[in-house]
Amino acid sequence: MNKYLRALAASLCFAACGAAAWAAVDTSQFKKEADFAEHYLKEYEKEVARARGQKTLYRYEREALTRIRSLMQKYPDNPRVKQLFDRARKAAMRSEGDFIEITPAMVQYLKNEAELRRIIWGKSEKEWKSRLASMGDAFLPKTYPTPDYTEVSIDDLKDKYVVIEDVRYPANQFVGATGQYIACGKPSTGYYFINLSGRHWVAPYEAVKRYRRTCDSSMDDVQKWTVLGKITDIASEIPEAGEQKVGSFQFGWIVEPVALMVPGHVASFFDRGDEKQAYFSGESEVRSIKEKWLTVKSIPDDVTPERLMEIFMTAIREKNYELYLQCIQPERLEGVYGAANDDYFWDLHQERFHREYVHATFDKAKIEVIKGFDDTNDLKNFFLDANQQETLKKAGGEKIEQATVESKAWNKDGRQINQPVLHRLQRKGSGRWYVLDYALRF
What letter does residue 191 receive in the DSSP assignment? Predict the structure, then answer.
């Protein structure tokens, strides 16, 4: 009996020692796996933090998540694994970017613009048809093939009107021996040369640009136009762009533009009596139509930097150009380059609020005095008496404050795009705040 007990005790002792040795190896292996997983998780968390709400590509994401998933499958009840899993889950969610709810009010400007586009196109279509009807016999019944120059002379066609569709500008623009033209047609059907020299083209073209700027940012850069023009002459040209022309001469009827149309959007008409030499249909009514849609019409004198950025965004979305200019520091708009840049960046803002994002939010402003005496610096002013402070005020001159406001832009699905952008604003003396960096995206 004692023999069996001794054998059993020895067996249990051997098994216990073996299990202890296996546990030691297993614990060491676990620690190694967990340490590696945590290392990659930390790097992944840093990447997500640097993205600041933007969805992007992450170098350490796959490695971190793969290792932690493996740990969770092997050691589901281990406290350290559970902690790593919770951190990974939060990082994975944050890596997808920040989200907000896009309310109907945030995208109302798009609906208003669609309604304005519908109104202007209705007026354009009506005026275009009326103009064609008024021409009567002076209107060519068909565009192509063009009248054969061997059978009719310019005297037969002079002052006749023609509608030319699918006019490709600037693709088919060329400079010839007799002027600058857009070539329309081909050798088998004949050519029209639309004359670009003078105001007959430039003025209606500028009117279309005004329409896009004030009414309809959804309209892309126009590549194909419909032109109503008057035949004025005939010319022989090589209708090719570039200095090295390799084609043959072609006869074409020179057409002086009278009106331009972008189907589905707008029509513009040359008019010497108009101040701008041309107008687009309904242009005189645009302001009154938009007036009822404006949610902000002025800037209060006590506006905060954050509120001014909101007004700036609203002015852009509602196409309130006057309010937009009132938001910008006046010195930024001075001179020829200031005015040109203003129009350029206005167009960019319009495009971005259609193609990239629909709304922006703004964090609390950080304000500092960059010139003059800072009477809000309680720490320093604790050591200065009233006379010293007054002396510093006089020596420092007019106080200039600068505010920085961080914006986040959101697309139509409510997802943050890009990283937050820092905007600078400035206030001089007792005046109000103005936007300095008006060119920046949101």
Answer: E
> Is 47 within 8 Å of 57 (Cβ atoms)?
no
pLDDT of res. 372: 81
Token pair belonging to 110: 């798009």
pTM of the model: 0.77
**What whole-number distance in Å separates Cα of residue 437 and Cα of residue 345?**
11
Name the nearest CA neighbour of 298 among 288, 284, 308.
Answer: 308
Strands (E), 359-415: 359-362, 366-371, 400-410
DSSP, res 150: T
Contact call for residues 184 and 145 (beta carbons, < 8 A): no
- Residue 250: how many other CB atoms lie within 10 Å: 18
Q: How far apart are CA 352 and CA 329, in angstroms?
A: 22
| Per-residue confidence (pLDDT) for residue 3, from 0 to 100 | 55
Kindly state the tokens that stand for 277.
């030499």
Spatial distance between the Cα atoms of 192 and 337, rounded to a whole number of angstroms:
38
For CA atoms 432, 433, 439, 442, give the dihedral sign: negative
- β-sheet bridge partners, residue 426: 402, 434
E strand residue ranges, 173-249: 173-175, 180-186, 190-195, 224-237
- Which of 236, 407, 183, 165 has its CA nearest to residue 310? 407
| Residue 411 near residue 417, CB atoms below 8 Å | yes
Q: In the chain, list all ranges with CATH 3.10.450.50.
A: 294-435
CATH node for 294-435 = 3.10.450.50
| pLDDT digits 0-9 by tens, 352-368 | 999 999 999 999 999 99
Q: Is the Cβ–Cβ distance between 238 and 247 less than 8 Å?
A: yes
Which amino acid is located at 84 in the chain?
L
